[in-house]
From TrEMBL:
Pfam families: ACR_tran (PF00873). The chain crosses the membrane at residues 12-33, 338-357, 364-387, 393-414, 435-458, 470-496, 539-557. Gene3D superfamilies: Multidrug efflux transporter AcrB pore domain, Multidrug efflux transporter AcrB pore domain like, Multidrug efflux transporter AcrB TolC docking domain, DN and DC subdomains, Multidrug efflux transporter AcrB transmembrane domain. InterPro entries: AcrB_DN_DC_subdom, Acrflvin-R. The keyword Iron-sulfur does not apply. This is Efflux RND transporter permease subunit. It comes from Parabacteroides absconsus. SUPFAM superfamilies: Multidrug efflux transporter AcrB pore domain, PN1, PN2, PC1 and PC2 subdomains, Multidrug efflux transporter AcrB TolC docking domain, DN and DC subdomains, Multidrug efflux transporter AcrB transmembrane domain. The keyword Transmembrane applies. Keywords: Membrane, Transmembrane, Transmembrane helix.
């Protein structure tokens, strides 16, 4: 099909552009929104609990058998594991990029099944959790009691019972972690009374196993001629303290019955005492949410916000839920900024085109080309499975000046024919397209050849910038199609030769164009003089080229490098590590000291602290962390409101606390690569020594 076909049939050219617009609009409505493309390797998390065991026991009896079974699973890169003195074990397996996270989870579960017989009975009884998830959290919530009417234990269990199940059911949520312990019946044995009656803790465990259980009791009358059939019910597990107090341990020689309350104190408490949580200085509980690999973070957070809004309506009086951290806040602000830049770029490009073409009809053709090319690119993004993220939007901003070039070339070629004396726009367009069609195709293919190879780069960088390069190439390809169809058709329909205004009085537009042409002509003449000067002194041009190349090499070797720049994410984490061996209460004293230092920072909106766990060091009685939600960016416009300044302020205020290592840091720019924007270094012992040997 020749270009003349579209000039003769402008409706056909219009239909092609309208089809591109419709497909682009449909694709835009279906595109997921995220900060950056999915580049983090898929991860699978395996967690287990060995109640009462210390970290060394957990490592030897739980982690080692599981690691030996999991090691070598298909597409695995490496795995890390942690064990705590509270009996918890966690193994994180990292897979190669491109691995199906669902199949990775199934493969890990199959490997774990082979190690079930090597694990302690308590571990297999409580179960082993296998979940696909990202290594970073997309949202952090906190429930607290502003009037101190509820304690931490109640808040933790309220979260676990009423909130955690609903959040876990949201599609794309990989893990919901509540920092706290469930309710549990605590039996505090009196050693003196136990010795008096000749009892051991195992005797109490035997009594609990025999009298506090769920048992199948069957039915009566199933095979008889009686009128009724009875289903037997057993009382089952006890729920009240008094029921446990009255459990019979044994009968004494004098005929009395020894009950559990005679040798122990029974109360409803927590399963463990590993965490102490506060929010804004009040009792609170934190909950962290991680997404599954390959899911849409923006959609997940929107659904979480809708769920939390519904839950907030039914909260008991005295409980409040606050949003401590959300990746969507920074994402929305970033997308808004990029869209603003996109609109500004379109306006500037159209304005520049009008100044040089000096005709509204001629300007309309390139402006329409921008719209068709950009919107049509959304259809390409949807088809190939890309998302609307910072890189694809940046590519669209950058490509605006390129997609308009083809249409400008067409308009200028037609205008050149008018300047040669053509009076018919139809004939001028046909002759102009015959001379520039091959040039348009060639230059477009050359441009695409620069960006398409980006998709063949391996590793994280290649995965990261593939969407950027292919978005640029797709937008330019659509602009070429538009320049060969709609642009010549419009040129033949609406363009006319320039008319010289008669009379002495000229309009403001005409006077502006005359003044601009005069100034631009002077600039061109000066440029010609400079070019002639350099042509006569070729040695000077060669010398400047060598200097430029040398400067390029020097700057490339000395300029700081990084994958993405650091930005103000609106959240600050403070990691607190006290001396090893400190109790939870001793760590809490230091956490209160840190709290008193930072609570008066004016840029803080909400903050929470958890004693017993930290972002960097994990679970432990000597660890703690603060999560600080800063005020919105609109409220932080001064230099001292920058996140780096706030981090420096935190370090200065806590510098006097010598009993702990305190580190403040921000969220990572790229999710899925740890909890901060730095390096994680693991020291591996390959000699088979103990942990103490490695520490030495």
């Amino acid at each position: 099909m020749k270009i003349r076909t579209f000039i003769d049939r402008p409706i056909l050219a219009s239909v092609i552009s309208v089809l591109i617009l419709l497909l682009g609009i449909i694709g835009l409505t279906q595109l997921p929104i995220e900060q950056f493309p999915e580049i983090a390797p898929p991860t699978v998390s395996v967690s287990a609990t060995y109640t009462g065991a210390n970290a060394e026991t957990v490592q030897k009896s739980v982690i080692v058998p599981l690691e030996e079974a999991i090691n070598g699973v298909e597409n695995m890169m490496y795995m890390t594991s942690t064990a705590s003195n509270s009996g918890s074990a966690r193994i994180t397996i990292y897979f190669r990029q491109g691995t199906d996270p669902d199949m990775a989870t199934v493969n890990v579960q199959n490997r774990i099944a082979t190690a079930q017989g090597l694990l302690p009975a308590e571990v297999t009884k409580s179960g082993i959790n296998v979940r696909k998830r990202q290594t970073s959290n997309i949202k952090q919530l906190a429930a607290y009691s502003p009037d101190d009417s509820f304690d931490r234990l109640f808040l933790t269990n309220y979260m676990k019972i009423n909130i955690e199940p609903r959040l876990s059911r949201i599609a794309g949520v990989g893990d919901v972690s509540v920092f706290g312990d469930d309710y549990a019946m605590r039996i505090w044995l009196d050693p003196n009374k136990m010795k008096k009656y000749g009892l051991m803790p195992s005797d109490i465990s035997t009594v609990l196993d025999e009298q506090n259980l769920e048992a199948p009791t069957g039915t009566l009358g199933a095979e008889s001629d009686n009128t009724f059939q009875y289903v037997l019910k057993y009382r089952g597990r006890y729920e009240q303290e008094v029921d446990y107090e009255n459990l019979v341990i044994k009968s004494l020689p004098n005929g009395e019955i020894l009950r559990l309350k005679d040798v122990a104190t029974i109360e409803l408490g927590a399963r463990g005492y590993n965490y102490i949580g506060e929010v804004n200085g009040h009792p609170g509980c934190n909950i962290m949410i991680a997404q599954t690999s390959g899911s849409n973070a923006n959609e997940i957070i929107e659904e979480i916000d809708r769920t939390i809004a519904e839950i907030s309506k039914t909260l008991p009086k005295g409980i409040k839920i606050v949003d401590l951290m959300s990746t969507k806040d920074f994402l929305d602000a970033s997308i808004k900024s990029v869209i603003k830049t996109l609109i500004e770029a379109i306006i500037l490009v159209v304005l520049v085109v009008y100044i040089f073409l000096q005709n509204m009809r001629s300007t309309f053709i390139p402006a329409l080309s921008i719209i068709v090319s950009l919107i049509g690119t959304f259809a390409f993004l949807s088809i190939v499975g890309f998302s609307l993220n910072m890189l694809t939007l940046f590519a669209l901003v950058l490509v605006i000046g390129t997609v308009v070039d083809d249409a400008i070339v067409v308009v200028e070629a037609v205008q050149a024919k008018f300047d040669e004396g053509y009076k018919s726009s139809y004939l001028a367009t046909i002759d102009a397209m015959d001379g520039i069609t091959s040039a348009l195709v060639t230059t477009t293919f050359v441009f695409m050849a620069v960006f398409i190879p980006v998709s063949f780069i391996g590793g994280t960088t290649g995965t990261f910038y593939t969407q950027f390069g292919l978005t640029m190439a797709a937008a330019v390809a659509i602009s070429l199609l538009n320049a060969l169809t709609l642009s010549p058709a419009l040129c033949a329909l609406i363009m006319t030769p320039h008319q010289t205004e008669g009379g002495n009085k000229m309009s403001f537009s005409s006077r502006f164009h005359v003044a601009f042409d005069t100034a631009f002509h002077r600039l061109v003449m000066k440029y010609k003089v400079a070019v002639l000067f350099m042509l006569k002194r070729k040695w000077l041009a060669a010398s400047l080229l060598v200097v430029a190349c040398a400067g390029l090499v020097i700057l490339m070797t000395t300029t700081k490098t990084g994958l993405v720049p650091k930005e103000d994410m609106g959240t600050v984490f403070v990691d607190v590590r006290t001396s090893p061996g400190n109790s939870l209460q001793e760590t809490k004293v230091i956490m209160d000291e840190v709290d008193s230092c930072i609570r008066s920072i004016p840029q803080i909106k909400y903050y929470s602290n958890v004693t017993g766990n930290s972002q960097l060091s994990g679970q432990g009685a000597c660890n703690g962390m603060f999560t600080i939600r800063l005020k919105d960016w609109d409220e932080r416009t001064q230099k001292e409101d920058a996140i780096d300044e706030i981090i420096d302020e935190i370090h200065q205020r806590t510098a006097t606390i010598s009993s702990a290592d305190i580190m403040a840091f921000t969220r990572p720019m790229i999710p899925g690569y740890g909890v901060s924007s730095g390096f994680e270094i693991y020291v591996q012992d390959q000699k088979g020594g103990t942990t103490a040997d490695l520490l030495k």
